[in-house]
Amino acid sequence: MRTFLLLALTFVAVNGSQPDLRKTLLKDIIVFVNQTLHNHSEKNLKQFVRDIFQSVRCSDEALCQAAKVLNGVHLNTDPNNMIYRNLFTYADLTVHRNCSVTASEEHPVKDFLKKIKDCCQLLYSKPVSRPKRVK
């Protein structure tokens, strides 16, 4: 009986880990964006970046593009740039690592971060679809 329970728990942990990791990353991105918006000087938040949310809807690919946009942005109170790192990891999990940024319109970082937060909240609220099992 113990062996069966251990096997069942292992199966649940292995098969349920990726969707849970995606939700955790989305939640972390929301937290880091909130921290960045409250702890940064206006000078850093007034930098201009390409706003990919003008041309694409909120999706996994949009977050990949957001990671590429934030790659070159320096935010003082975020020395490891955790927003970028988590966005990049999320894109890697969703198989959108090789996305390209085609947006040309620019907006302040502050507005862009708010759009990232809104997008993460939207994706977080959606149920995670699990891959179908192959027989």
TrEMBL record:
Residues 1-16 form the signal peptide. Keywords: B-cell activation, Signal. It comes from the Eukaryota. GO terms for biological process: B cell activation; immune response. GO terms for molecular function: growth factor activity; interleukin-4 receptor binding. The keyword Transport does not apply. GO terms for cellular component: extracellular region. The keyword Signal applies. Pfam families: IL4. This is Interleukin-4. It comes from Ctenopharyngodon idella.
